Every structure is written in structure tokens, then in C-alpha cells.
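User: Can you recover a sequence for this backbone? Please restate the input before giving your answer.

Assistant: Of course. Working from this structure:
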């Protein structure tokens, strides 16, 4: 027994693309680019998610010689996808694929990275455009047809980082809204409440170590049901937790397949003796809204509530993912 410790936008643009090589600063090669760097904090603002309950984190970047653009920060996908046309200074390798340097937090990638142009009349993407959002910055650390642009940043800025979203409690003045942060070069604190060792997936075409961030070892309980340890995916782009698998067929749910509000949900890291996180299912995206899909293999997509409740840290040199509660409650 454990003790208690004191569909998303990316899915809409998950098109098949040809893999593109990209620059990597994640592997230590003895060069200055691979050295220790002072952490860089990149502000993350939150916006209401179009057409559904919840909020998403937004960062500003520059691609090629383009002006600054706002993109949704997504740990659930890999690579940069844009829907406002070819950025200035980009080199196109096909009608939809290209390469360009990327600037994040004032830091430029050491070489051009691959991106994909999304040409679609999707109503959902049009709603993102209407909010001034130009694409998705996918910073997942696993396999994908594109590469994670963060891993092309110099030194430790490209090998480790942390993500925290701040809940937007203001509906009036944007100047009064709190912001979260993408901290490039961040080191997970020793006091992290949960630590996950990810399974290796080899290397990308550019030599970056890849890790299966869709299968962290998470052990879950729902109400009075026995604990189940299943592959767990921390996805900052999705506002609803998704509980999938035949093993969850008996969970209490509504007629619309939502986990029955009032159900107590808890999570522990697979190797931990403690229940590290607990919440009560409800109706609010990015907080407590969960959907049950009782078919197929078991996997849980946490949705992005964890990125509001915790700081989530990644280390691609070691394959580690950590949740810290140092800013919990923001």
C-alpha cells in the first residue's frame, strides 16, 4: 500500500511527414556549444483553449528572419508546425517541409531545424489563428518525423528544461495576468515529488538521444478500484485527461464517457512508496476533466493539468522526467 505524501490541437495536425535531420547540441562533444550554460527563462502566457474547456501555454519564437510569432507549447508532439505560411529566410525542401534557424528566449539554434507547414481549412485551427497563434512548438523527447527544436539550442540549454503553466485568473487586463515559464537549462530539484526514468528509443537522425515520454511508469487508482500501473504520458497540449484501455472498462463514467465527477484519482511514480498526486474528477479542463475510453491497450494521457500544478522537468541526456511541487498552486 502506498502512503500519501505531505483531443488536442496536435492531433489535428498529426500528418505523415518525411523525417528531417536537424542540428543537435544535446550530446557532449567537447565544444563550447555543448557546455554548461546559464538557464534562460522564457515566459509562457496562458489562453483559453478554443472551443473547449481548459487553457494552453503559449510562447513567442522567431523562425528564420520572420518577426516574433506565438506558438502553443506542446510536450505531446515532436517538432515545429506552422500554419501561417513560409517563414522568411527558410529553406523549403518540399511544398510542406523546410528548415530554418529558431530563436527561443533570445537564444538561436546552432543550426537550422526542420519544420512543417500545415495547409488546412480546419475550423479548429482557424479558431487558433483568430487568437493570434501561428503554430505548435512540439518539445516531446521521443520519436517523431520532425525533431524537437529545443535540442538544437547550445549546450545545456538544449539538453534539459522545465515547463510550468500559470492559471489565468484574469479576464480583463492582460498586464495583470501571471505567466508561467519554459526554463532552458533547468536542473530538476532534488526535492522533486515524482521522478520517472524514461525508456530509451535510440537516437534521432541528428544524434539526439530519444526517450519514450509516452510511457512513463505511472501507478493510478480511481475511487476504490485497485491500483494499476500503466504507460503514462504527460501532455501539455491536451486539456482533458484521457484514460484508455480495456482494463478501465469498469470505471464510473457519464453517458458522454467522462469519468464520473467526484471520483478520487491518485498517481504515484512506479518506484515510489508514496501517493504523490491526488485530485477529484470534475467538469473543468486543465484541472479535473477526464475521459474514459475503455478499449485497446492501457495508457493514460494526463492532459495538461499537471503542468499547472507542478513544474515538469526534462533531461534528454539522462532520460529523466521529474515533477516538482515547488510552485504548486499557481
Amino acid at each position: 500500500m502506498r502512503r500519501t505524501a505531505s483531443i488536442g490541437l496536435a492531433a489535428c495536425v498529426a500528418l505523415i511527414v518525411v523525417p528531417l535531420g536537424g542540428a543537435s547540441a544535446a550530446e557532449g562533444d567537447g565544444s563550447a556549444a555543448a557546455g554548461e550554460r546559464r538557464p534562460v527563462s522564457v515566459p509562457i502566457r496562458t489562453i483559453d483553449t478554443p472551443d473547449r474547456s481548459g487553457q494552453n501555454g503559449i510562447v513567442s519564437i522567431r523562425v528564420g528572419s520572420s518577426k516574433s510569432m506565438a506558438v502553443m507549447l506542446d510536450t505531446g508532439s515532436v517538432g515545429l508546425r506552422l500554419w501561417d505560411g513560409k517563414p522568411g529566410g527558410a529553406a523549403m525542401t518540399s511544398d510542406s517541409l523546410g528548415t530554418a534557424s529558431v530563436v527561443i528566449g533570445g537564444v538561436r539554434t546552432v543550426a537550422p531545424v526542420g519544420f512543417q507547414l500545415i495547409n488546412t481549412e480546419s475550423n479548429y485551427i482557424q479558431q487558433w489563428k483568430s487568437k493570434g497563434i501561428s503554430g505548435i512548438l512540439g518539445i516531446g523527447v521521443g520519436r517523431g518525423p520532425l525533431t524537437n527544436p529545443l535540442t538544437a539550442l547550445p549546450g545545456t540549454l538544449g539538453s534539459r528544461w522545465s515547463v510550468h503553466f500559470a492559471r489565468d485568473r484574469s479576464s480583463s487586463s492582460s498586464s495583470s495576468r501571471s505567466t508561467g515559464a519554459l526554463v532552458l537549462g533547468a536542473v530538476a530539484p532534488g526535492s522533486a515529488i515524482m521522478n520517472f526514468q524514461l525508456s530509451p528509443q535510440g537516437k534521432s537522425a541528428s544524434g539526439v538521444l530519444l526517450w519514450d515520454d509516452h510511457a512513463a511508469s505511472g501507478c493510478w487508482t480511481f475511487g476504490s478500484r485497485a491500483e494499476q500501473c500503466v504507460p503514462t504520458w504527460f501532455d501539455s497540449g491536451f486539456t482533458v485527461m484521457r484514460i484508455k484501455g480495456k482494463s478501465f472498462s469498469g470505471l464510473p463514467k457519464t453517458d458522454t464517457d467522462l469519468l464520473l465527477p467526484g471520483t478520487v484519482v491518485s498517481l504515484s511514480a512506479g518506484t515510489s512508496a508514496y501517493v504523490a498526486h491526488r485530485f477529484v474528477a470534475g467538469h473543468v479542463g486543465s484541472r479535473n476533466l477526464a475521459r474514459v475510453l475503455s478499449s485497446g491497450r492501457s495508457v493514460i494521457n494526463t492532459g495538461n493539468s499537471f503542468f499547472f500544478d507542478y513544474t515538469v522537468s526534462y533531461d534528454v541526456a539522462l532520460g529523466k522526467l521529474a515533477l516538482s511541487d515547488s510552485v504548486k498552486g499557481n
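That completes the design. The longest helix spans residues 123-130.
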